[in-house]
Amino acid sequence: MKRRSKTSQWHRRHVGDPWVKQAQQAGYRSRAAYKLLEIHQSERLIKRGQAVVDLGAAPGGWSQVAAEVLRGEGVVVGVDLLPVDPLPGVAFVQGDFCEDEVRARVLAATERSHVDVVLSDMAPDLTGVRSTDQVRSIALAEQVLAFARCALNPQGVLLMKVFQGEGFDGLFADFKASFSRVKTKKPVASRDRSRETYLLGGGLRT
Ligand code: SAM
User: By three-state DSSP, how is residue 205 classified?
Assistant: First the structure.
């Protein structure tokens, strides 16, 4: 039997995906926008006037949602390895979030000493080797948590993507030690088969 390549399997799923169609019709740059919308609708994550940092922002769906909520009051700064086409109300920094210099540029772009919301939909480039991908994903998530602990104001919130698997329990323990209010979220638009989940924390513990 003829085997389909991983790319063609992804393409077929992508084209037939109702969230992709909905995002295209609504003018969102990614289906991922619906994940943030759903979580924002239940949790009121972002409020007008706030400073929001969007880690792993390309192509810009989450930044669009954040800017829509702020309606010109507040600031959104996105960062990604990839370039992002300009969006009204959003500043983008291109670079590797894991580098100190890039983080400093992101914080400088907010023009605030601390931020109110850190969002991270970042995922490392997948190698296809599950154990390697899992280790990289947890390492990235740990960096996000460390960044949020420094960058957030005490009432700030962190929403970040992580993958269930090896290393998750340790990360989750660190997350719970960092915030007084913690939830796990699995939005409907997060495909059922995906191991991704979102951790939401508020009320930084010092
Ligand atoms: N939330 C985005 C949206 O709605 O358009 C989609 C984000 S996509 C799932 C994950 C992004 O994380 C990719 O664009 C990738 O380039 C970015 N990324 C991964 N590692 C990164 C790093 N170390 N620094 C900056 N961006 C990174």
Answer: coil
- Cα separation of 23 and 45, whole Å? 21
Catalytic residues: 161
Give residue-wise pLDDT tens across range 86-144: 999 999 999 999 999 999 999 999 999 999 999 999 998 888 888 898 999 999 999 99
Residues 156 and 115 sit within 8 Å (Cβ to Cβ): yes
Whose alpha carbon is nearest atom 15 of ligand 1?
A: 56
Ligand 1 pocket at CB < 6 A: 29-30, 32-33, 56-62, 79-82, 96-98, 121-124
Does pTM top 0.70 for this prediction?
yes
Report the atom number in ligand 1 closest to the C-alpha of 161: 9
Ligand 1: distance of its center to the CA of 3 in Å? 30
Say how far apart CA 196 and CA 187 lie, in whole Å: 10
pLDDT, one tens digit per residue, over 72-92 is 999 999 999 999 999 999 999
User: Strand, helix or coil at 71?
Assistant: coil
C-alpha 179 – ligand 1 centre gap (Å) = 24
| Ligand 1 centroid distance, CA of 190 (Å) | 16
Contact 205, 55 (CB under 8 A): no
